[in-house]
Design a protein that fits this description.
Number of helices: 8
Low-confidence stretches: 177-211
Number of strands: 9
Order of helices and strands: EHHEEEEHHHEEHHEHE
Distance between the termini: 19 Å
Strand order of the largest sheet: 8-2-7-1-9
Radius of gyration: 17 Å
C-alpha cells in the first residue's frame, strides 16, 4: 500500500472530459492500483503535425516561440543553464528538443523521493533563468514564462529518467492519454478520492491544492 506521503503529483489544465476519464480509466479503484504500481505516471507525448518550421519538421525546440507570448531566446537561456549546471542532461536535452513529441501540461504523479529530486533540479534551473531573462516589458501571458519553460524541462527530466531506468531498472513508468476537459469534475470524481488516502497531488492552476 502507498502511504499518503509517498506519492506526489501535478495536474495543470482547466478541463478534463468524460471521454478522457474513461480512456485513462480514472476511477478510484483503478487509480489506486496504478498509483501503487508505478513510480512515475505521466501523460503520453503529444505528436506535432508534420509541418516544416524554419526548413525542418516541427520539433519541441522550434514549436516554442510560435505563440506570440513565448520567446525562443528565453528557452535558449534556460537550456544553456541546464547544460552548465547538469551537463549529464545535455544529450537528453538535445534529443528531446529535436523530437516531434512533447510531454506537455506539467501533469504527473511521482513517488515522493523522485518528486523531491525533480523539484530540486527544476527550480535550481528556473531560479537562475529568472535572474537572466529580462521580463520587464512582458505582458501577463508572457510573464507566465516559468510555467512554459517548466513544461519543456519536465519533458527533458522525464526522458532522462526513462533512459536511466532502462539501464538500472529502478523506476517503473506508466503513460496515460492527455485529452483534458472539465478538470474540477475529474478532480472530484477520481483523483481526490484516491489521493486523500494515498498521495498528495498539487494542481498548478493557482487555486486547487491539497496538503
Amino acid at each position: 500500500m502507498l502511504n499518503k506521503d509517498d506519492g506526489w503529483g501535478n495536474i495543470a489544465y482547466d478541463r478534463i472530459t468524460e471521454e478522457a476519464i474513461e480512456d485513462m480509466k480514472l476511477e478510484p479503484e483503478v487509480m489506486r492500483e496504478l498509483i501503487t504500481k508505478y513510480d512515475v505516471i505521466s501523460v503520453k507525448g503529444r505528436r506535432y503535425p508534420r509541418v516544416k518550421i524554419e526548413g525542418k519538421l516541427m520539433d519541441v525546440y522550434h514549436e516554442y516561440g510560435m505563440a506570440p507570448f513565448q520567446h525562443r531566446e528565453d528557452l535558449d537561456i534556460t537550456l544553456r543553464i541546464l547544460k552548465e549546471k547538469y551537463p549529464e542532461y545535455a544529450q537528453t536535452a538535445d534529443e528531446y528538443m529535436s523530437s516531434g513529441s512533447a510531454h506537455e501540461c506539467n501533469m504527473f504523479i511521482m513517488k515522493k523521493e523522485i518528486y523531491y529530486q525533480y523539484c530540486a533540479w527544476l527550480f535550481d534551473i528556473l531560479f537562475e533563468a529568472e535572474k537572466q531573462i529580462d521580463t520587464t516589458w512582458y505582458s501577463e501571458e508572457e510573464y507566465r514564462i516559468m510555467g512554459y519553460l517548466a513544461e519543456r524541462l519536465c519533458g527533458i527530466y522525464y526522458e532522462y529518467l526513462k533512459k536511466s531506468s532502462r539501464e538500472s531498472g529502478h523506476v517503473n513508468f506508466r503513460k496515460l492519454c492527455s485529452r483534458i476537459r472539465h478538470r474540477r469534475q475529474f478532480w472530484n470524481r477520481s483523483i481526490r478520492k484516491v489521493c486523500r488516502s494515498y498521495c498528495r497531488p498539487m494542481i498548478s492552476s493557482h487555486h486547487i491544492s491539497t496538503s
